[in-house]
Write a structure and sequence with these properties.
Strand content: under 5%
Radius of gyration: 20 Å
Shape: elongated
Helix content: over 70%
Number of strands: 0
Length: 112
């Protein structure tokens, strides 16, 4: 099975935490760049508020806050469910899929 970039990224993330513990800090570190970029819309929002368009400014600020809270919710959800996921993931199959993708081959059957 040919993996998409998103699937490959997710499998690599899981593989990384097969042997080492997953902590809130480690998960949050993965979001630092996205959160840095989330500072840009509030800057535009502040600018629009200053030039007399407060409604538009607050839309930018609110959207940025909403995106940040969405990320926090995803982080907390992953952190709460990780112990169960860790137990049910077939680690041998995960490693096999990553190796097959790196080689550009696939041993898995084609989907119908």
């Amino acid at each position: 099975m040919k993996l998409t970039k998103l699937q490959l990224k997710l499998l690599k993330f899981y593989a990384k935490y097969q042997t080492e513990p997953l902590t809130l800090f480690k998960i949050m570190c993965a979001f630092w760049l996205a959160w840095l970029l989330l500072l840009i819309p509030p800057i535009f929002g502040w600018f629009y508020i200053r030039v007399g368009l407060p409604a538009l400014g607050w839309v930018f600020i609110g959207a940025s806050i909403g995106a940040f809270l969405r990320d926090v919710n995803r982080i907390l959800s992953l952190f709460r469910t990780w112990p169960m996921l860790h137990e049910i993931i077939n680690w041998e199959r995960l490693v096999e899929m990553l190796q097959d993708n790196a080689k550009g081959t696939s041993n898995s059957p084609k989907p119908n």
